Amino acid sequence: MSLLQEFRPGQVWLDTAGNPIQAHGGGVLYHAGTYYWYGENKDVDNETVIQEIEGRPTPVVRRRVPVQGVSCYTSTDLYNWTHAGIVLPAVPDDPDHDLHPTKVLERPKVLYCAATRQFVMWFHADSADYKAACAGVAVADSPTGPFRYLGCFRPNDGMSRDMTLFLDDDGQAYHIAASEDNRTLHVALLTEDFLRPAGPFSRIFVDQSREAPAWFKHNGRYFMVSSGCTGWAPNEAEYAVADTPFGPWSTLGNPCVGPGAERTFEGQSTHVLPIHGQPGRFILMLDQWNP
């Protein structure tokens, strides 16, 4: 297939083998001259379960797909992506495992930890009913894996659902997640190895029900794009700025302009990608969720 030379927002994006890119809710790591795009692999049909409806067993299609794992794609130009495989696969043989297909694995993000020379992945790990609300952690020696699952937990004993990671200029890393039943965002400093919370954390946008956080830094200030909590339905994005990761944060309104901006172009934020070698230029990545 011919190489892409432009972005086509909202259209199905094919990899270099001609298959739809399966990297939903994802994030991009730039390392040693290559971009690595990690995301949820959903290359499978929605679940069909049997439910009792009016006293009769009836097939019902659920608004989720069984967990397949985390995909990785590589690129040097941001247009053309090569599938490097599922770098953290599901564990289908153990129904009690956190990565069993019946569980939840969402919004994987990866950072390179210079202190340990490891690639560290965090993601939203949850039970099928979304009541566990944990963060899962995995590590690898290579950006294309395989990643070794270390387990899941609630950071600082708080719920962790929609989440992202952020690496600051000073090498410190942060975990940002929707917590307290999605009413409040938690910002947690991570340990030197990026594997656990270091202790200090902040509650931001308290009782404002923001989710889908995506962070970036520009001219020494911290910026965040997030969405409201309206389930699968899109809503108006909001962005905010702060002088420190822990805040205080000031809202700046809707970062989007043009037709469809009031519904974030039918999308929801997942990551803001700084373009390497072009300071001040960023790409906002959005998912158009279609249950």
- The sequence of SSEs as H and E is EEEEEEEEEEEEEEEEEEEE
Strand content: over 45%
Number of extended strands: 20
Contiguous runs where pLDDT drops below 50 for at least 5 residues: none
Strand order of the largest sheet: 1-2-5-6
Structural class: mainly beta
The 3D shape can be described as globular
* Gyration radius from CA atoms, angstroms: 19 Å
Outline the biggest β-sheet: 4 strands, antiparallel
Mean pLDDT: 95
Helix tally equals 0
Distance between the termini: 30 Å
- Share of helix, binned: under 10%
Written description of the protein model:
By secondary structure, the chain is mainly β. The chain is built from no helices and 20 strands. The strands form six sheets. Strands 1-2-5-6 form a four-stranded antiparallel beta sheet, with no helix packed on it. The mean pLDDT is 95.
Annotate the secondary structure layout.
Layout: E1 24-31, E2 34-40, E3 48-53, E4 56-61, E5 69-75, E6 82-89, E7 104-113, E8 118-126, E9 134-140, E10 148-153, E11 163-167, E12 173-179, E13 184-190, E14 197-204, E15 210-218, E16 221-228, E17 238-242, E18 249-253, E19 268-274, E20 282-287
Antiparallel strand pairs: 1-2, 2-5, 3-4, 5-6, 7-8, 8-9, 9-10, 11-12, 12-13, 13-14, 15-16, 16-17, 17-18, 19-20
